[in-house]
Amino acid sequence: MNNKDLLQIAEDFDNPIYVYDSEKIISQYKRLAKAFKQVKNLKINYAVKALSNINILKLLNNYGSGLDTVSIQEVQLGLEAGVSADKIIFTPNGVSIQEIEEAVKLGVQINIDNLAILEQFGSKHPEIPVCIRINPHVMAGGNTNISVGHIDSKFGISIHQMPHLLRIVENTGMNINGIHMHTGSDILDIEVFLYASEILFDAAKNFKALEFLDFGSGFKVPYHENDIETNIEELGEKLSKRFNDFCKSYGKELTLAFEPGKFLVSESGYFLVKVNSVKQTTSTVFAQVNSGFNHLIRPMLYGTQHEVVNISHPNKNKRFYSVVGYICETDTFASNKRIAEITEGDILAFKNAGAYCYSMASNYNSRFRPAEVLWHNKQAHLIRKRETFEDLIANQVKIDLR
């Protein structure tokens, strides 16, 4: 996509607005598949939580992707998008046994990360295939909020609890068909990832009827020019060889599974906003825009540094700005960043807005959530309408307070 296309979308569909380039999503999917071409059976399950619009799910399904889901609602979205149940894995955390049983009724692969739930489920449904989520206690990823493999994490069954886990499996006669791990997001050091993988391989030796090993994801994408990212090609070469060797020693061709979310959709996304005003204070020049952390919370929550481009006047001389929103709290998208000179009415584009942007949006300050547009086959397609006041009050119940 180019600036002209983005500006036209901002005009035709109003703004703020999320825009996704399907060509980038497809190219990322193919890149990951190519990196692991030496593996006979590869399964890529897109992590729905990153961007859950059903059109994105349909697009990836067309290219063979399965889905990684963390709620019963995400399972239902996947089915609504036409993804078959056997291509969906349900990997919740902290949900009730009732929600897991609801997912069973829908026919998806179950992934359990809690010994108590595992025992309950195995005692009641020993015949249903179950994947087990292991916590390898390997710290990988960037911000502590998205590093999930450490000793104090709420995710997964500790690798140190393997004797207890095996006792539950033996006592219930459960059918364990997969082992899973996820260490965190924004992984840079593939050697750390490979080390965690060895723990998964070692754990897998305890189970004789496995069908797949799921290595999670968390691959880092570049947020600006010359930014570092996970070397997928090197990881593919090294992990593929190790996986193939393991399959030989295991005596069976297993499936290697991944669950990328951000890696597939982040770089496809642009969040377009309009500059309401430029405010000069004694120390800072603020570009105040018609959005806030209700639409893009990641900079405030995780400290992410989204590149900001003035697509209305990209060639003007660059000046330093702090880009801030309209929420009545500290609401900063970017601090003291060099951006092409900004004037009132300019359209700014936040890059890397495909993952965890709309999906984490809210109605805070009673603001409407924006529309979503998919740029597909060189055309803009509206894939979610902008909310209205009627949407805001649709589920509120007015009572008589006289």
Automatic annotation (TrEMBL):
GO terms for molecular function: diaminopimelate decarboxylase activity. Its EC number is 4.1.1.20. Residues 18-354 form the Orn/DAP/Arg decarboxylase 2 C-terminal domain. Pathway: Amino-acid biosynthesis; L-lysine biosynthesis via DAP pathway; L-lysine from DL-2,6-diaminopimelate: step 1/1. Pyridoxal 5'-phosphate binds at G218, Y356. Residues 24-266 form the Orn/DAP/Arg decarboxylase 2 N-terminal domain. The keyword Lyase applies. CDD domains: PLPDE_III_DapDC. The keyword Nucleotide-binding does not apply. Keywords: Amino-acid biosynthesis, Decarboxylase, Lyase, Lysine biosynthesis, Pyridoxal phosphate. NCBIfam families: lysA (TIGR01048). Specifically catalyzes the decarboxylation of meso-diaminopimelate (meso-DAP) to L-lysine. Belongs to the Orn/Lys/Arg decarboxylase class-II family. LysA subfamily. Homodimer. This is Diaminopimelate decarboxylase. It comes from Mesonia aestuariivivens. The lineage of its organism: Bacteria, Pseudomonadati, Bacteroidota, Flavobacteriia, Flavobacteriales. The gene is lysA.
